[in-house]
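Re: the 79-residue chain
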Amino acid sequence: MEKAPKTKKSQTPAPNPYKDYARYTGLAFQMAGLIFLGYWLGKQLDQYFELKIPAFTISLILLFIFAALYSLIKSLPKE
C-alpha cells in the first residue's frame, strides 16, 4: 500500500505587532524632519534677502507640511 506524499501546509507567519509601530514612527520622524527643513531653509532665505516679514519661512513650512502629508497618504495601505 502506497502512502500519499506529505504536503507542507502553507503557514503564514504571525503578524509582527511592532512592524506597524516602527513604520508609522518612521513616518512621524520623516514628517518632523521635512517641516524642520522647511523652517530652516525659509529662515536662511529670509536672512539672505533681509526680509522683515518671514515670507519664505511661512511659505516653505506650509509647502513642506503638504509634502509630508502627501508622503503619508501615499504610504498608507490601500484597503
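The chain has a mean pLDDT of 88.
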